[in-house]
Write a structure and sequence with these properties.
Length: about 400
């Protein structure tokens, strides 16, 4: 057995001549445990929100999305895109045209994003899971085009699940000059009708501004015949996602960007990652403060064991071994605090997942979920454990060497 470790373990669990040292050691363990628990719980809550947001996007966003690097649109008959559509791993390939317009209904107006899609959008995404109303997913009937707005946009315009009057859409003309005497001449005007449903992604980006319609309508109102703004893909089950994505990148070249679901919502997830990192840094500082208790405990222990140090030196222990005894003492306090804190943190996460102890608000239905979401990721638990050990070691290294050097001099 390692000699310094054996002595450090005896010192940690044995009674001291001054009872205050035992109390301070216990307080040190509790302080480290509380900080560790806070790290585990906080990181798990951020993971919960991350996973929840990702689950909402999967109902609307495709698995892969190919968009041009320059400009908003590209020719739909581009040979590189045609080659992607023919790939064996691609189950659904859908052309999409998306741009902004003005929506007006019964005197109310809002800036909206018109997303023109093909009927295969139903197979491409999980749109049926987020539709509300008595109708079904329909894009057109003969020459009449349907528009499916987000639920928040419908509330803003005062529309119900089924709006009787047509929704007027205005988009600026691509060519010609604006006539200030008659500004409406510079706009393309068209109408959308209700299929009896709204969609509810539970994300304001979509619910407050998006309208789904047929791509033929979008091409007509934006004057973009034969063009698309994105090619959206769904892969066949069992396909290697990363490998297919790399193959598509090789096919389309540098003129296109291939985005997965997380990259399509890059801004949202970047913000969440930054928030998680900031929370981790702040809680690590709190952990460092908690580790100062360890310094006090070790300082008193070194003074208390002054006679033992003399005895150990007489028995042949080197100064390096004596310093390592007290270093091991600090590391064990950190390790015990880390293990206890992680155990309590995991227990709290389980309780929150099972019973929803901490609610998001007092009124039911005010939020998408009633309680804070929690998702424990093993890599975060490992990160927290390593962080506690590293911070604990760094916090005691210099003080132990300083006090031990004075004691041994």
């Amino acid at each position: 057995m390692n000699f310094p470790f054996f002595i450090a373990r005896r010192y940690l669990f044995s009674k001291k001549s001054t009872h205050a040292i035992n109390i301070i050691s216990a307080i040190s363990v509790v302080g480290v445990a509380v900080a560790t628990m806070a790290l585990v719980v906080t990181l798990s809550v951020f993971n919960g929100f991350h996973d929840m947001v990702a689950s909402f996007f999967t109902s609307f966003d495709p698995q892969l999305k190919i968009v041009p690097v320059k400009g908003k649109t590209v020719a739909a008959d581009d040979p590189r895109l045609a080659k992607v559509k023919q790939m064996a791993q691609v189950e659904v390939a859908m052309e999409c045209l998306e741009d902004q317009a003005l929506a007006v209904w019964q005197g109310r107006q809002a800036m909206v994003t018109i997303k023109g899609v093909e009927p295969s959008f139903e197979q491409l995404t999980h749109i049926d899971e987020i539709l509300l109303g008595d109708g079904q997913f329909e894009l057109r009937a003969a020459d009449m085009f349907y528009g499916i707005p987000g639920i928040r946009l419908a509330e803003q315009l005062g529309m119900g699940y089924t709006y009787v009057e047509p929704l007027k859409i205005y988009a600026p003309r691509r060519e010609g000059q604006l006539n200030m005497a008659n500004p409406l001449d510079g706009l393309v005007e068209d109408e959308l009708y209700s299929p009896g449903v709204l969609f509810n992604v539970k994300q304001s980006r979509y619910d407050k501004s998006y309208i789904l319609t047929d791509i033929a309508f979008a091409r007509r109102v934006f004057e973009q015949q034969g063009m698309l703004s994105a090619l959206e893909l769904r892969l066949k089950p069992g396909s290697s996602f990363d490998r297919v994505k790399s193959e598509i990148k090789a096919v389309v070249g540098d003129d296109f960007v291939v985005k997965d679901r997380f990259e399509q919502q890059d801004d949202t997830f970047k913000i969440m990652k930054i928030e998680k990192l900031i929370a981790y840094i702040f809680l690590t500082f709190i952990l460092m403060v908690a580790c100062f208790n360890i310094i006090g405990s070790l300082s008193m222990l070194i003074i208390d064991k002054k006679d033992d140090v003399v005895t150990l030196r007489n028995l042949g222990a080197s100064d390096r071994q004596i310093v390592r005894i007290f270093l091991f003492e600090g590391r064990m306090i950190s390790a015990i605090g880390a293990v206890v804190g992680i155990a309590i943190g995991l227990a709290l996460c389980w309780a929150q997942q099972t019973y929803g102890l901490v609610k998001l608000g007092s009124s039911s239905g005010s939020f998408v979920i009633n309680a804070y979401p929690v998702s424990v990721h093993p890599e975060d638990v490992v990160l927290v454990f390593v962080t506690v050990l590293v911070v604990g070691f760094l916090a005691v290294w210099y003080p132990v060497r300083y006090f031990a050097k004075r004691l041994l001099s």
